[in-house]
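Please go through the sequence line and token line underneath and see whether the fold suits the sequence. See right below:
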Amino acid sequence: MKDPYRLAEKYFKGLCSQEEAEAFLKWYFSGQGEEKIKQKIDIFRLSIKRKRRRKWDPTGVFEKIQVAKNESSLFVSHKTDEVARQGSAPAEGKKVGNLPRGSQKWRYIVASLLAIVILGLGIVIHQIISKNRLSGTSLSQEYVYKSNPAGQKSTIFLKDGTQIVLNSSSRIKYPARFPSHERVIALHGEAFFVVAHDAGRPFKVIANNAEVTALGTSFNVRSFAEEKEIRIGLVKGRIEVKNRSTGSEPISLNPGEGVIYYPGRQEKMVKIHVDSEKLIAWKNGMLYFEDEPIGDVLKTLERWYGVEFIIEGELKGIFTGKFKNQSLEAVLEGMSYSFSLDYDINGKYVRLTSKQDIK
């Protein structure tokens, strides 16, 4: 295969011929494809650091392949069958020689059928990827999965009338049909919930070991894996928050109150007062920073705009600022005065250079 990387890009745009699609899938399933694409990504990122440009970024294609592989059982079953075919050994005491003509014929038929199956898988997987890109939903028999990549937000309406605003780099999981006694949502990341009242079915949000219970209310939960704490704040109504791992008494919250939960070794929950405006600023398209360390600010910007920062030099300090539906360039321009830095935006990569280190 002359250029499998460009063929991969062409495949996921739906522009491949039957022969090209078959060639790409065979190459990827061979066990070499995934490793080769990873190597291509490493080379690309290295070229960015050396200020060399590439016309095509293979990272996006690799991420699409990973989504298809992770969310479609078709990939799993195919790879299992492939291992079984390759790993089957001849019985002890038998010689392995040239196959008779009849066996070669059957081998040809099996290979042809396999090619058809692989092509069919490719078409189905491409449709799954296209549907997921539009709706953010993973198909499952029992659960519904909705997720947002970095730089994207969405509003989800549940059948019970509950509204969920899901932040970027966040995902939720919930049953396709809630049972008669409760409504449970699993959250990774950040979301704002406006819960429909149902006295017979309390609404629960599980974030790590924190559990929020409500009947009809609106609240915000922030639980990103890379952050050391989980923050829960109540805007309207009343909720209870408890630690699922310790079984301690739940903490009741009124509007304007919140909880900071430190998972891991501390397993501690602290009740706090919250600023409702700041709490839900992200939902209204506003970046709201108040005395936040520059490192935390950059993590938020990476999720908000779907970029990756490359830092040259050392950036220190805290930052305060509000940005309503502003471009990344406008935000960085405002930060450049506070931290004395230069920035260079190159696609999804942003280079930050501290002027303080330049003598």
